[in-house]
Amino acid sequence: MKRRARDLAAALLVALGAASTPRAANEPPAPGVPPDTAAPPADPLPPAPSPPRPADGPFATLRERMVVEQLAAGGIRDERVLAAMRRVPRHEFVPEALRGRAYDDGPLPIGHEQTISQPYIVALMTQLADVQPGDRVLEVGTGSGYQAAVLAELAREVWSIEIVEPLARSAAETLRRLGYANVHTRHGDGWGGWPEAAPFDAIVVTAAPRRVPTALLEQLAPGGSLVVPVGRWWQTLEVHHKRPDGRIDVRRVADVRFVPMTGAER
Ligand code: SAH
């Protein structure tokens, strides 16, 4: 109940934020309008160790400011999520020319008409996914690899699928270079999920399908949550929680804007 109230408060803040700035989670390339988790396993696995981080001076200062002024002030309350956002060097996931803006409150282009999501949205989705240290997590829409890295700070293992091959390749390279050995990436269509690695304790979709992909609900473990923006141009961020008996509860959390999920709807 407490968690629910907190998420709703966060959603309200998203809505207010969206009203006061034209920016949203991701800006679609198209013309027109601008744009309670798995029962703990009997023998919970420890989290994967976080890769060592060199001190990164001015970026660390900007990152701390992002955490305080955008995330904590915006209603992100999960300390583990805030700690993960403090650790992941977001500037390593954006094109070199945009590094100076990596910690700004907005999405940034990453090429191929795709964007890295606004830090607040990454934190909110991660908080909603309620990732626990022993968890296996699936992400659909690797993009730059940033959200995968944030999830990898909290989970045991992360699988992430990207449909645009050059993005899949460069994200895999960035994650490898930064030492995220617990992230598995694949170039492919996320509509089918990643059946060989299922079931997942949490699934995060960072492109917007017009309806919830059936395979993702099937690949969600009992007790797990699927966080997904659903809709066409403007979307609703939804959390589909699978109860231990397999029934699904749906919560609608916020109005958001993501790039559309492409691929073969099924
Ligand atoms: N999570 C990313 C941002 C994602 S933008 C990050 O942290 O940088 C959404 C991504 O979803 C884009 O890279 C897009 O190419 C990808 N995408 C869209 N449809 C997809 C599909 N069917 N399967 C896998 N990836 C998809």
Itemize the secondary structure elements and their pairings.
Layout: H1 2-20, H2 57-72, H3 79-87, E1 108-111, E2 114-116, H4 119-129, E3 136-140, H5 146-154, E4 157-162, H6 165-177, E5 183-187, E6 200-205, H7 214-218, E7 220-231, E8 235-242, E9 248-256
Parallel strand pairs: 3-4, 3-6, 4-5, 6-7
Antiparallel strand pairs: 1-2, 7-8, 8-9
Helix pairs in contact: 2-3, 3-5
How would you describe what is shown here?
The chain is an alpha/beta fold and 266 residues long. It has a single domain, classed as Rossmann fold (3-Layer(aba) Sandwich). Helix content is 31%, strand content 22%. It has seven helices and nine strands. The strands form two sheets. The protein has a seven-stranded mixed beta sheet with strand order 5-4-3-6-7-8-9. The N terminus is likely disordered. S-adenosyl-L-homocysteine binds next to strand 2, helix 5 and strand 4.
